[in-house]
Write a structure and sequence with these properties.
This protein is of the alpha/beta class and 254 residues long. It is built from nine helices and twelve strands.
């Protein structure tokens, strides 16, 4: 039996703006990356998202972004390692407050968008964030989106790090992701094939046809795709026949 986590970015609605399909997607995932209110989300949405995750026994983690709601946290900013560290701690603290209120634990940290890119390319920024996470709560899991971040995280003996794979995006042969400006509905069968390939063999086919190593214990599914529920239903059908067990992040590293 192979154990793997499905994570999804959640709680990205704010004010009068609705984003994603949280109510429909939550029953199919095991870990929710909750927006922290700087790139998306607001206090009311955060509370609702934590409550929804609790209802389905889905683990929660903070999905901290840069303070750029207009750009959805995807635009680069000139921020020091200390400033990025503070953005993460600020958003983590907000989620921890709602989690304590509802008697659940925050299990992980997964930076969003341009913040993730900044940590991937700047060791100083990555270390500032990881060291702050350890000081706030050494039991938190760092969900690493690429190998640069994952290798740095592994240097900290006290920090549990889990490598993350993607199945509704294409990989280049160098293991970088292709993120299109216009998001098309993914093919559910193709996504399910990739899911099984990563979960059972730790590899996936790149756009040039080569097989690349993706040693992931958690797989991200984007819940804002128009057919996200169909994609997740197809994955669950394949899981049942492939001897794969869905497991929350905190249970994976226990």
């Amino acid at each position: 039996m192979v154990a793997i986590d499905i994570n999804c970015d959640m709680g990205e609605s704010f004010g009068n703006y609705s984003m994603g399909r949280d109510d429909a997607v939550m029953p199919f995932i095991t870990s929710a990356n909750v927006a922290g209110g700087l790139h998306a989300g607001d206090p009311h949405v955060m509370r609702e998202t934590v409550a929804l995750a609790t209802e389905y026994d889905v683990g929660i983690g903070i999905h901290p972004g840069l303070p750029d709601m207009m750009g959805f946290g995807r635009r680069t900013m000139d921020a020091t390692p200390e400033e990025v560290r503070d953005y993460v701690v600020y958003q983590l603290g907000a989620l921890m407050g709602f989690a304590e209120w509802m008697s659940v634990d925050v299990q992980h940290v997964k930076p969003h968008g341009a913040m993730y890119s900044m940590l991937s390319t700047s060791e100083a920024h990555a270390r500032a964030v990881m060291e702050a996470v350890l000081e706030v709560n050494p039991d938190l899991i760092y969900l690493a989106t690429d190998m640069n971040i994952y290798e740095i995280a592994q240097e900290y003996d006290a920090l549990d790090a889990v490598f993350e794979g993607y199945v509704d995006l294409d990989y280049r042969s160098d293991r970088t992701l292709i993120v299109e400006k216009e998001k098309a509905a993914p093919d559910p069968e193709l996504v399910a094939d990739r899911f099984v390939s990563i979960a059972t063999r730790g590899e996936v086919e790149a756009t040039d046809g080569t097989m690349i190593d993706v040693p992931a214990d958690s797989i991200c599914i984007h819940g804002d795709a128009s057919n996200a529920v169909e994609v997740l239903e197809t994955i669950h059908e394949r899981i049942e026949s492939e001897n794969i067990e869905l497991t929350r992040l905190d249970e994976l590293v226990a």
